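Running this now, will post back.
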Amino acid sequence: MSGHRFRFAPSPTGFLHIGGARTALYNWLLARQSAGNALVLRLEDTDRERSTDEAVAQILDALDWLGLDYDEGPLRQTERSDLYAERLEHLLGSGAAYWDTAGAAEVKQAKEQSGGAGYRGTPVPEGTEGAAVRLRVPDEGHTVVRDVIRGESAFENRLLDDFVIARADRTSLYNFAVAVDDTDMGITHVVRGEDHLSNTPRQLLVLQALGAEPPLYAHLPLLHGTDGKPLSKRHGAASVQELREIGYLPEAVRNYLALLGWGYDAETTFFTTEDLVEKFSLERVSRSPAVFDEQKLSWMNGHYIREMDTAELARRVAEWMAARGLPGAGDPRLERAVAAVKDKVSTLAEVPRLVGFAFGPVETDQKAWDKVMGKDGARDLLERARAALAGAEPYDEGGIEQALQRVVEETGAKPGAVYQPLRVAITGKTVSAGIFESLALLEREEALERVDRALQRLSA
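Update: finished.
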């Protein structure tokens, strides 16, 4: 087999979490560094109670959104039982594995009696009640995990239990299936989260019993929140789907995820995907936990938005809005609206919050109304602004700005005293796109109708 072979092997028990997405990204970057490399997508679904087809679909959807393709798969462990059965029979036949009836309590008692030495079972015939298959662990020597990130870790074999690799019905358990898959698929590099480090000695022992060459391991640091605790829902978005729902761009997410534990140098923050493929290396991945900070991701996403061509950004916004049934996704004015707020937003979701008023009826925020319309002189200034809008020529951003500026000059009022009542009248909020851009988006007739409704309400 030419080139290196990597694998991303999630358990399909829910959404693709951010830590899993980073693992997928790192494997993808390594696989794409040479034409001879390959990335295998393997679904480790031996946990039949928790693994669901819905979760499989969610993982595939998340990888597609992130732009992380794969060369082989998705391969499901539940469809590879014949291979596991064959390898299990080989180990039983060679004496490397045996049937044993000990449960957890018996194993614990035996370890206590032996002063902490690993459990060694007593072989029984297959079919004996309560029997499962255990792998025979050598009593001498060490099992050495060679890790690109963490260095070498040696585990004393005499302290390791003969561990269960198959149930009474011969169905495989996780560590056995993973080791068989890695050798059968020719995986040369196993890049996964640090939470799998405790599984690695067992998988190496299975590979040794099978006479297979072990892959090179790299265990990635765990992700923490800004409070230093393991990343969870309490820190905000925890899955790829949540990031998409908020309105992050996949290229910004790829850039940010790459920096969670890896860095090229002390200065560079923004990387194109091509840059990441070229520059990423496991040797520069830290052993320390990485901090996921959604504020930093939002800042980075805002940079990507500002750098993006406005037409392309409008297309992305339209897609995001259409997927959520929001009005305006197909409106020809959307590109103008996006241009008006491009420098003010950090996510796609913020765009309809600022310009959605132009594509549907006004939904007035009562607090905004009370704050602005309750001020002395608000009604008079709104009437003057209305008259200026009615006569503005041309009715575009420039013409509107000149007309309203004259109201400011003639009344001696502060600009905000003129513009904010207008803003609340046409948008229902105190925050929107710029007032001139907002008015131009509505066209003159619609803007005047909204101002008239606000004046009627003030007179009631």
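The chain has 19 helices and twelve strands. More later if anyone needs it.
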